């Protein structure tokens, strides 16, 4: 059994960072949480630094001596070249700042299915592997900030003698605000606004996503895999997909979400009816809803990420992952996707983020 030590969670306020730090604390780890804004999570020592600023990183991390590091943060830029410079540079700066500590045993990097689908600029348009995506597939030819992050990780591990793992998640279901990847909260905010305006709950995505089999990733499950990889030899120096382990079709789940919120629903009809277009004016409507229900977050931009959910639901190909590599290595965790969705909706309601 691995004895808990010191862990550093980079991006501790995010949708993965929050649940990962909580799990580590519950397991007895001494946990440091790094972000630009700081955190007040129970049991987590808050560190503030900018990943683009090597001097601030060295100052913030001095004396922390983490054994396990999880990198769960990224910054979206206007072009993939900028994404590579900023996000690849963030991994390089972080690991360089920790070199003098000489404490690292394992570094986990969270990426995602853009590893197989390509970057936002060429999303799902290049030569792609058949589904379900498997970890041994070669990289695409297009530039990709995930590849740049991996290369920085591999280079530092070779020089400094620590093990690594890469965790390729699908769309994440979890608990966070102000996070681009938050589909549960985005869909729930959309449903809440539909009810406020007396509108049907229209599926905003493509015919392929409405009808095809897909999967998603529960944030708690991803955190469990990161901890497993950092504490088990079979999880080290490997890349792993991470999804719930079940599959579903949105045409099956969408009516159930509509029923939960008391809405009439519409499926795909002719072409995508995007959230970016349909939620024009949502800022004012949400502010009114938040005031009437005494919600803690009146800013819709911190609640919903219309563009990111449109991207996931608008893909014109089937997208799902193979989990056999992880299972064969010994990670057997799973989640029921329907239960996962409604679990997080209830958590948002308890936290007064949703009415």
Please give a structural write-up.
By secondary structure, the protein is of the alpha/beta class. The protein folds into two domains: 6-169, NAD(P)-binding Rossmann-like Domain (Rossmann fold, 3-Layer(aba) Sandwich); 177-214 and 247-318 and 336-350, no CATH class. Helix content is 41%, strand content 13%. The protein is built from 14 helices and eleven strands. It has helices at 17-26, 54-61, 80-99, 114-117, 145-160, 183-197, 207-211, 219-231, 250-261, 275-278, 282-293, 306-313, 324-329, 337-350, and strands at 6-10, 30-35, 44-48, 68-71, 106-112, 163-169, 172-173, 201-202, 217-218, 238-242, 265-266. The chain starts with 5 loop residues before the first strand and ends in a 5-residue tail after the last helix. The mean pLDDT is 95.
Structure, briefly:
With 355 residues, the chain is α/β, with parallel strands linked by helices. The chain is 41% helix and 13% strand.
Helices and strands in order:
Layout (H helix, E strand, L loop, with lengths): L5 E5 L6 H10 L3 E6 L8 E5 L5 H8 L6 E4 L8 H20 L6 E7 L1 H4 L27 H16 L2 E7 L2 E2 L9 H15 L3 E2 L4 H5 L5 E2 H13 L6 E5 L7 H12 L3 E2 L8 H4 L3 H12 L12 H8 L10 H6 L7 H14 L5
Parallel strand pairs: 1-2, 1-4, 2-3, 4-5, 5-6, 6-10, 7-9, 8-11
Helix pairs in contact: 1-8, 2-3, 3-5
């Amino acid at each position: 059994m691995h004895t808990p030590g010191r862990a550093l969670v980079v991006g501790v306020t995010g949708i993965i960072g929050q649940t990962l730090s909580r799990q580590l604390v519950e397991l007895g780890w001494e946990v440091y949480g790094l972000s630009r804004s700081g955190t007040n999570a129970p049991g987590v020592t808050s560190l503030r630094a900018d990943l683009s600023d090597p001097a601030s990183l060295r100052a913030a991390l001095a004396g922390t001596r983490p054994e396990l590091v999880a990198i769960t943060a990224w910054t979206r830029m206007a072009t993939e070249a900028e994404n590579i410079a900023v996000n690849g540079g963030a991994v390089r700066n972080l690991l360089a700042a920790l070199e003098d500590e000489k404490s690292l045993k394992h570094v986990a990097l969270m990426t995602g299915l853009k590893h197989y689908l390509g970057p936002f600029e060429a999303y799902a348009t290049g030569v792609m592997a058949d589904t379900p995506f498997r970890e041994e597939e070669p990289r695409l030819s297009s530039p990709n900030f995930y590849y740049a992050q991996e290369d920085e990780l591999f280079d530092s591990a070779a020089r400094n003698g620590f093990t690594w793992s890469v965790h390729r998640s699908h769309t994440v279901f979890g608990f966070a605000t102000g996070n681009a990847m938050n589909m549960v909260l985005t869909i729930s905010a959309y449903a809440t606004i539909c009810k406020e305006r007396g509108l049907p709950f229209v599926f905003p995505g493509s015919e392929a996503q409405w009808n095809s089999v897909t999967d998603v990733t529960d944030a708690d499950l991803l955190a469990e895999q990161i901890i497993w990889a950092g504490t088990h030899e079979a999880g080290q120096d490997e890349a792993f997909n991470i999804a719930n382990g079940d599959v579903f079709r949105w045409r099956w789940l969408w009516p159930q979400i509509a029923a939960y919120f008391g809405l009439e629903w519409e499926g795909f009809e002719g072409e995508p009816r995007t959230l970016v277009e349909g939620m024009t004016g949502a800022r004012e409507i949400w502010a009114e809803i938040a005031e009437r229900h005494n919600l803690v977050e009146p800013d819709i931009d911190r609640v919903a990420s219309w563009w990111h959910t449109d991207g996931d639901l608008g893909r014109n190909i089937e997208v799902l992952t193979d989990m056999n590599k992880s299972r064969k290595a010994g990670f057997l965790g799973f989640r029921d996707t329907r239960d996962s969705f409604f679990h997080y909706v209830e958590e948002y309601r308890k936290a007064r983020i949703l009415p």
